[in-house]
Design brief:
- By secondary structure, the chain is mainly beta.
Length: 223
């Protein structure tokens, strides 16, 4: 009688390593951590729990307002381009039907990271955009702040904020690290800090959430 070895399904390793006790403990710790508000000095820019709705959001990018010095957030979506003041939350510019670039191509270069022409106070400036088509935002900011995206229950991703060595999630939750966003209702597009380190952004396929540690904050409900 001839015996044949049963092969694993295509794409599955027959020697897939198991999680270590440490990895399992960390996974369970993250899964058990509820979403909590950001610590001082961070404050939400928008008054809504999930920021402002942006249907069909593709990506976001940062620039600086030449007049106020505030961080600006450029949002690219299927419905056009928008520009938010990241301190006040005001939508200061909107283009629902962006023109093609001078070379006849689309305004945004989709690979490997988007570049889109600015609008409003940053017209004429090319803004690098991170999101569906690649790219990335800063994951560290002055003061020891760090941001990490994890998926202990893939495909739902979680955004974790830490300070002064709180990664890999040492110390009590809510003291050195914080679970600040759970993308369990739409796809995460980008998460990170502005180049100035004054703004923290989380963008999903349906919403934009912003937090700031800059002075002069006033909530805006403009969507």
């Amino acid at each position: 009688m001839k015996w044949t070895k049963e092969r694993p399904p295509v794409g599955q390793s027959d020697h897939e390593p198991e999680l270590s006790d440490y990895q399992r403990a960390m996974r369970f710790r993250i899964l058990a951590a509820p979403v909590v508000p950001l610590p001082d000095p961070w404050r939400p820019v928008f008054e809504y729990e999930y920021g402002v709705p942006v249907g069909g959001l593709l990506g976001i990018g940062f620039e600086t307002d030449p007049d106020t010095g505030h961080d600006l957030v450029m949002v690219v979506s299927h419905d056009g381009h928008g520009l938010f003041d990241a301190v006040t939350g005001e939508k200061i510019a909107r283009d629902r039907d962006p023109d093609d670039g001078d070379d006849g191509d689309d305004n945004c270069d989709p690979d490997p990271a988007q570049w889109c022409p600015g609008l409003g106070p940053i017209a004429g400036i090319r803004v690098r955009v991170a999101g569906l088509f690649g790219g990335g935002l800063h994951t560290a900011a002055g003061g020891g702040w760090r941001l990490e995206v994890v998926a202990p229950a893939w495909p739902n991703e979680r955004v974790l904020l830490s300070r002064d060595g709180g990664l890999p999630h040492s110390g009590p939750h809510g003291e050195r690290w914080w679970h600040i966003f759970h993308s369990n209702y739409s796809e995460l597009r980008a998460a990170g800090f502005s180049p100035s380190g004054q703004t923290l952004a989380v963008a999903t396929s349906s919403d934009l959430s912003l937090w700031t540690r800059a002075a002069g904050l006033s909530h805006s409900s403009d969507d």
